[in-house]
Amino acid sequence: DVKVTQSSRYLVKRTGEKVFLECVQDMDHENMFWYRQDPGLGLRLIYFSYDVKMKEKGDIPEGYSVSREKKERFSLILESASTNQTSMYLCASSPPASGRGEQYFGPGTRLTVT
Amino acid sequence: GESVGLHLPTLSVQEGDNSIINCAYSNSASDYFIWYKQESGKGPQFIIDIRSNMDKRQGQRVTVLLNKTVKHLSLQIAATQPGDSAVYFCAENRGSDYKLSFGAGTTVTVRA
Question: What pLDDT digit, counting tens, does each position of B38-57 carry?
Answer without folding.
Answer: 999 899 999 999 999 999 99
